Amino acid sequence: MQRARAFRGDRGGLGLGPALLVALSLSACCDPLAGDTDDDTGSLAVEAPDLPDELVQATLGSSALAAAFVGCAEVRRGPVCRLAEDDELRLWVPVLEPEDVTLEIDGVATTLRPTPAEDGLLWRFNLAGAPERLTVEARTATGPARFELKLARIHDAAAGDDDDDSSVADVERPPALLEAQAFIAEQRYDRDEAAEHIARLEALLPELAGEPKAFALGRLARLHYRRDEPEQALERYRQSTALAARLGLTSRVREDALAAAYITMYIRPDHVEAHRWLDLESLAAAGDPSNAAYAAYLRGLLAVRVGEYELALKQYREAAYLARRLALETDERDILQMWGVLLSELGRHDEARSQFARAAELTGEDTPACARAELLTNTALAHMRAREAGEPREGLADPRPLLLEVIELNAPGACGNRESAERARLNLAQEALDRGDLAAARATLDEVDATLANSSERRRRLELLARLALQEGHPRESLARWDEFSAEADAGGDADRLRPADRWSRAFWRARALEAAGEPERALAAYARAEAELDAQLLDVAYDEGRESVALDHHRSARHYIDLLLRQGHNEAALCAARLARARTTYPIDRGGRLAALRPETRAAWDERVRAYRRARAHLDRLRQDDWRLSSAELARAQARRRVETLRAQELRNEALGLLSEAQAAPVRCADLRPPEPGELLLLYHPVVEGWVGFAATTSEVTVARVAESNQALERAIAARDSSADARRLLAPFRDALDATERVRVLPLGLLLDVPFHAIPWPEDQEDALLLDHAPVAYAVDLPRPSALEPPGASEGDADARQRHAVVIGDPRSNLEHILREISEVDSILDDRRWSVELLHDADVDGDTLRAAIARATHLHYAGHGLSDGLAGAGSFVELADSQLSVGDILVLPQVPRSVVLAGCETGLTNSHTLGGGMSVARAFLAAGSESVIAADHEIDDEVAATISVELYTALAEGDPFDGPAILRRAQRAMRLTPDSNPGWSDVRAWTP
User: How many H helices and E strands in the chain?
Assistant: First the structure.
């Protein structure tokens, strides 16, 4: 699938460049502040990134005010802002109260009132005369701070002393240069007219010097770009930036470096060179913050190109914030589009649509045709991705009229971007393929020019032709097209630079063609390659930024792979593939198995970041305690500072979690998975090409049976809540194996995550018996076997000291009716069983103390409030007295208890719109190294939670280890058999790694 690159033409030399479209194959959340911020930041579109503010100034001990400005016709070394007569200068200051700011123009205080803008204030000036200096004095929480900017009119020499090398006299630009600039600003892609301007400027170039020559070189680069001549464009950009740097033309260096970076990202892909151009831009950035939003945006584009999705999201978020604080609506519109495209690629379709809706609000009648074409293309692609992800079509726009309008807008006389029109046709062809309209796909592809200048688009055309041939029933032709694709990538040196998502798509569709061509062994190898490419891609998606959605959107390769393995008689290999596909999203944060495997230097980096995160987390908890003392203005200021510090803390935590992936020298293999124990039956159900199959594995054999002919058949049985139907479909095929087992380990996937297997009636003849009456039932995340569950350095003596130490935490917010009885009885029973118990109930015990107590416990019992974020679970948490214990907090605890009971709502909630269930508080403990966690998979009644908690410990004999599945089974059977039994007993499950 291809998308428009929101990249505008020049706006007086500033802007987001010419309109382009860029190829992206399909790929598969949540607010990273969910559960950790105490102020309502609204949608992602208003979220402040980690940027300098008065808090940062205090940290750095600086008295400089981190202001930002835009509107200069040119910025020169100094910095000097050079203004044309009609230029509007905008100034943003990171201070919340106008009374705290004194702003002067040439020593005269201005009476102009600012408007609030993104944790600061925004002034807009149309300055008369010839102003020379703008100064800002501000009172901040850390003391006085100052900002100063030199001003000059565009027709004057630069401000400064005569010996200031930033002073460069103006030279009149010749008419041919002004005409070329006007053509570029119109954002038209007339190749012939571009050639005429190139000829005139080449003839003029020997007569130019200084600023006009630097400007002319940059215009020549842009004209070559319009003629699809990237090498000539890059050479002119090298010349223009070198000359501009010598002359102190700061804004010229930045603009041309960023334009060149774009070409090396998309037109002539070379990511190393793209980084060099962006580094050059950074050197000039200190003297010219006016392009900061665009620079962050371009870094987001590059991050997407190399598959660093978490970084890309951060850069887009920052870019949008930088644009909004200076009210740069056109820039914001373009940034929001690409942010939305990435969100849709990550499967976060609702968020993507919100960004496109906001971008549409910023599009008006005067928006250039190229920019309107970009927005239509990106909107169409977002809806196409949502369709492929299975969202109901009635809630989505038809992409065809949008793409046809893109072709119209790119006609000669309008935008005139031939490449953009050709890419719109490619997108129309894919839309037809997705609908199964092969005739329309063929007709559209026949219209596409085979000599597309962009190598990415040439490959895209070949990919679509290969897919079309396969769907037309010509697998050999499809394979030939894939050979052409490989030759094209190799010829352009692009083979190693394909994004993981593109490599997955290539391997998957090639495998489909090999299978159709009757080459099953080669097809199996290609499917395995697709699965490996998906694993590589997931390592670049943060656990809280869409990893589950990416895995789900790419799950087709696993279904086809498993289906073919079963048809070839490879049952054990099919089970392995199903297990690896189901749990792949959790492997990268399997701390219990990875921490000990880190290299010493990586482990040191982990320790450093975790310590810094804990310090920041404790500091945030302390800051919140004083909120009640503050006035409304002081509270707003405190929350603004805290939002920045929260994001900084979360970045430290995410950096630490990212280091865990370095422990994976090789992908997880079948041999790394936990095999069935003696007397244990492992149950796994997985979709294949048509319907679902079930696997039942013991130590000696794997049995496979088809349990549903389609997703719809299984969904109907589950939706009807017909337990006997569930039993017939899910348990009946494995009745003999169930008769012989002592323990059941279930690996639920997708829609079966909502099925309480432990409460399914026993098949056929025992109507009143349930599965839990026959054996304990454990629900497994299916993490690999760790080399050591204890962190490095833990001795046997340490383990013995923790052997039977329980921490009991009770309702830190003190508003649940049955909590006091529950924790009192749990404390008493554990004491009778000769456990040492640490009871924490006092609301004055701070979060840092509670987290430390949890880390030294063998067993944890938490009774209180839990909340799932409702998405992939990464923002889930349980409440503490003054803060929360979040998923992220748990994953960086120094140690975790071996066994955990979470008697709170949604602490074990799974998401049936994921593969393995997503993240939860329970799963975070397991990923961090706990051996069993008992948790609620829904909201749970306070009385039911208290009753089942007491029953758990009543069933625990003195000297027994806390075996979560076995103990929960005894407690649930006891509750079920009591008079007036509350059915809520079945909403609790025992989870294991």
Answer: 36, 26
The SS3 call for residue 331 is helix
Q: Which CA distances in Å does 261 have to 45, 74, 248, 287, 319?
A: 26, 21, 20, 20, 17
Contacts of 804 (CB under 8 A, 6+ apart): 834, 835, 836, 858, 859
| Residue 774 CA: distances (Å) to CA of 638, 770, 779 | 57, 7, 16
For the sheet with 836-840, list strands across it. Answer: 702-708, 692-697, 680-687, 743-747, 777-780, 988-992, 932-936, 899-903, 859-863, 805-810, 836-840
Would you tell me the crossing angle of helices 438-447 and 455-471 to the nearest 10 degrees? 150
Contact 459, 497 (CB under 8 A): no
CA gap 53, 140 in Å, rounded: 10
Cα separation, 554 vs 576, whole angstroms = 18
Closest to 351 measured CA to CA, from 22, 736, 94, 46: 46
Res 585 pLDDT > 60: yes
Count, residues in the chain: 993
**What is the share, in percent, of the chain residues with pLDDT greater than 90?**
34
Please say if the pLDDT value at position 335 is more than 50. yes
Please list, residue by residue across 531-546, b when 16 or more beta carbons sit within 10 angstroms of its beta carbon and e when fewer do: bebbbebbbbbbbbbb
pLDDT score of 721 more than 60: no
Residue 692 has pLDDT above 80, yes or no: yes
Q: What is the pLDDT of residues 181-214, one digit of tens each?
A: 888 888 777 888 999 999 999 999 999 998 899 9
Alpha carbon distance 674, 126 (integer Å): 70
- Which residues make beta-bridge pairs with 281? none
Strands (E), 643-720: 680-687, 692-697, 702-708
- Given a contact cutoff of 8 angstroms between Cβ atoms, the answer to whether 833 and 825 are in contact is no
Give the residues across from 935 on adjacent strands.
902, 989
Tokens of 766: 């025992």
Measured distance CA(452)–CA(463) in Å, rounded: 14
Looking at residue 338, its amino acid is M
Between CA 854 and CA 895 the distance in angstroms is 8
Predicted local distance difference test score (pLDDT) of residue 794: 40
pLDDT in tens, 846-873: 677 888 888 889 999 998 888 876 556 7
Q: Please report which residue ranges of 362-417 form alpha helices under DSSP H.
A: 369-388, 399-409
- Please give the C-alpha separations between residue 886 and each of 258, 565, 591, in angstroms, as whole numbers: 39, 40, 16
The residue assigned the tokens 């009770």 is 810
